[in-house]
Specification:
eight-stranded parallel β-barrel, alpha/beta, single chain, about 230 residues
Amino acid sequence: MRSGRERLVFPLDVEDLAEARQWIARLRDHVGVFKVGLELFTAIGPDAVRAVHDAGAACFLDLKLHDIPATMAGATASAVRLGVRYLTVHAAAGPAALRAVAGAAANSGTTLLAVTVLTSLDRGELDAIGMRGEPADAATRLAGVARDAGVLGLVCSPHEVATLRGVVGEGGVIVVPGVRPAGADAGDQRRVATPTDAIAAGADLLVVGRPIRNARDPESAARAIASEIEAAIR
């Protein structure tokens, strides 16, 4: 079983390598996985991944790939060569693309995570892009598409975890953004939960950014969240 630290993901939402390294150095004792997203990766590229690895931590490359199958497979192969632990793709890219990335990551140390419905989207947002119904229904459909294509890792809101655990089974990896300690500001996340609730619902990894980054003492905030996760998994 992963420890609380190993289940905690901190997003490096900066655009400067020096600042990214500062955050890694500050939090590495309490955070096991650092997420490199679009902002940092487009600013400095693979050096962001190397900075995480240089600190002995696992890298979560959050690029949310969504393209034609050949392009997604090529990008996945490149991520595998970088040695990232996790890589996100959009389940909405479709079965062919998902099968292609599953093949590109086969027999590697990279776990693919299919993004279902972004936590910033509610029913009104989904209606606007032609996805009718509740976010939970859309997430379940997309999770099934990913599973059938061979991608057993998922990204979903805390509200869909329990249902999607049934889709991918105990062998799947479920990553949950939109996690906020009790009393924290939800920000632009529409569907949130506390660390305890997310773990109880069946989440494997929790992404926690602003409650740590904006805290008066980020190290103490990260330590407290890791401890809460640890207590929840016992």
